[in-house]
Amino acid sequence: MNSLTNTVLTELYSKANSKNAEGMKRYGITSTKKVLGVSAKPLFAMAKRLGKNTDLAIELWKTGVYEARILSTLIADPNKIKKSTMNAWIKDFDNWAVCDCACMHCFRDTPYAHELAVTWVKRKQEFVRRAGFSMIATLCVHDKKMNDKVFIKYLPLVKKYAADERQYVKKAVNWALRQIGKRSLYCNPYAVKAAKEIKKMNSPSAKWIASDALRELQSPAVKKRLKTWAKRSKK
Fold it and tell me: According to a count of CB atoms within 10 Å of the terminal CB, is the N or C end of the chain lower?
């Protein structure tokens, strides 16, 4: 472990808050190793100060400390992190926060984002599958250049895994379905159709995913927003 890694860890431990750590457990933020109870604001501030540093991110990840891993996802450079590193990290995912933070702040901007999303949703491990659907959801929002038809092609995967009853998978499947439906006026009817098909499945998870998604995707607010975006894009 190099001196910079030690310095960062020392700072993280200096910000430790046992009360926060206990509170985080109620939200499913647990770790097989160590949770210090450092809140998000100082972590983002540290990440901004440190800048992109993939080597440091890899060293911090190895510590297993929850906050160190969150920081890793914030400072890893999407243009430099290797596919092999991403595949190694997902095997360590043991809570939704690290999983989603990695997908939202690093993985989605890598050249492998779409490829790995499809690969990961097919894996059995709960947080690996969640990572795949989290990637789809975040790419729907942030990958503005990708053709909408690419996201429509993700709907069969949404339908296939809608019956996965595991809490963190079903929430991510729901998230992906809703984001596909909110991406554009073009995507919305495809997502609504998929949701109606999912609702007919003999699965409590599928029925919840579909009902929740339809409530949002068919709402007047979403329809109005999509029509407004469509008009603006034509100008």
Answer: C
Asked, for residue 148, whether it belongs to a domain, the answer is yes
Longest dimension (CA), the chain: 57
What's the pLDDT tens digit per position in 80-128?
999 999 999 999 999 999 999 999 999 999 999 999 999 999 999 999 9
Angle, helices 113-121/126-142, rounded to nearest 10 degrees: 140
| Contact (Cβ atoms closer than 8 angstroms) between residue 169 and residue 130 | yes
Tally the domains of the chain.
Answer: 1
0.85 exceeded by the pTM? yes
CATH number of the domain where residue 174 is located: 1.25.40
Residue type, 96: W
